[in-house]
Amino acid sequence: MNRSTNSGSGVQYKSTGESGMQKARLVEQVCDYIRENISSSLTLEDLEKKFGVRGYSIQRWFKEIMGITPRKYMEELRIHKLKTNLKNGEPMPMAIYNTGYKSQSWLYEDSLSKLGMVPSAYRKGGAGETIYFLTGKCALGAIIVAETEQGICAVSMGDSEEALVQSLRKEFNRADLQHSEKARDRLNSLLDYFNGQRLNLPVAIQGTDFQQRVWAAIASIPYGETRSYNDIAGMIGKPKAFRAVANACGANHVPLIIPCHRVVRKDGSLGGYALGLDRKKYLLEMEKRNSAKM
Predict the structure, then answer these.
(1) pLDDT for residue 60 is more than 80
(2) Is residue 277 within 8 Å of residue 268, measured between CB atoms?
(3) pLDDT category of residue 3 using cuts at 50, 70 and 90
(4) Would residue 202 count as lying in a domain?
(5) 137 phi/psi in degrees, rounded to 5
(6) In a domain, 203, yes or no
(7) In this structure, is the dihedral angle defined by the CA atoms of residues 140, 141, 147 and 153, taken in order, positive or negative?
(8) Does residue 118 carry a pLDDT above 90?
(9) Which domain holds residue 93?
(10) Domain check: are 17 and 86 in the same one?
(11) Any domain includes 24
């Protein structure tokens, strides 16, 4: 059957013969709608009524493009909101309730994969965890590295060391943050990178299963080379999830070590970069020059 329907957003879609652009647009609208209704118990039936497209089609297209189902996407948004609620000091039951869940069992059944630690520890904002950090100057301005006993948990660059420290304190607002020479070796390794050295440092960052797979694929890109967002999506077995790959790049807290600057658009243009496109361009050109010397 070849049926056109008017969605709640005023856009027409066909049940068969739909274009890739139509599907991408619908998925983008579904993402926006889920974000706007994160505390509601949305179902595929709700999405079908909203957009005038059959639920199974929404599910299939969403998974093709995002690499996950609408339900999983909503859960990841809720986990992000829960983390914010806990960091803001909300009591555990209220923090969970405000994500849209009515029972704490949703979190406690698998808190390690959702939060990376037990809920009580996460709510403390890193309380009880010691994080050593050190700042310095590199070719791209100020740089900061922070590490725990498990590995490096943050790397960033900016215009001032003071701003970088403030940002770190905001992220780990209850941890024992220590400006320490214990992080000197890690900082020196990062500074040596700007002189052509390769990085091979341990990291300790939390992410969803999808993000971890993306980061692992990015870490495999050879020095001096690039891959497109589409390439990374294909490497993790989700060829349509290039937009979600870009989002995972933006969530990377240890750039340079996980070299998301090596991920570009399909046409070769730079795409985005959390630390600024000028820095991304510099890093790519620097690596290209150094590779030519080998």
Answers:
(1) yes
(2) no
(3) very low
(4) no
(5) -120, 135
(6) no
(7) negative
(8) no
(9) 73-123
(10) no
(11) yes
* Pair (230, 288) in one structural domain: yes
Give one word for 249, left, alpha or beta, with left for phi > 0 and alpha for psi -120 to 50: alpha
Report the residue count for the chain: 294
112 membership: H or E segment, kind and range = helix 111-115
Residues marked as catalytic: 260
Mean of pLDDT values over 156-175: 91
Asked if 18 and 85 sit in the same domain, the reply is no
Q: Copy the structure tokens of residue 284.
A: 């790519």
Query: What per-residue confidence (pLDDT) applies to 170?
Result: 85
pLDDT value, residue 91: 63
What domain count does the chain have? Answer: 4
CA distance 229 to 224: 17
Cα torsion angle, 170, 207, 29, 71, sign: negative
Give residue for tokens 């658009």.
265
d(CA 236, CA 234) in angstroms, rounded, equals 5
Residue 86 within any structural domain of the chain? yes
Residue 84 has pLDDT above 80, yes or no: no
Same domain assignment for residues 57 and 85: no
**What is the rounded average pLDDT for all residues in the chain?**
82
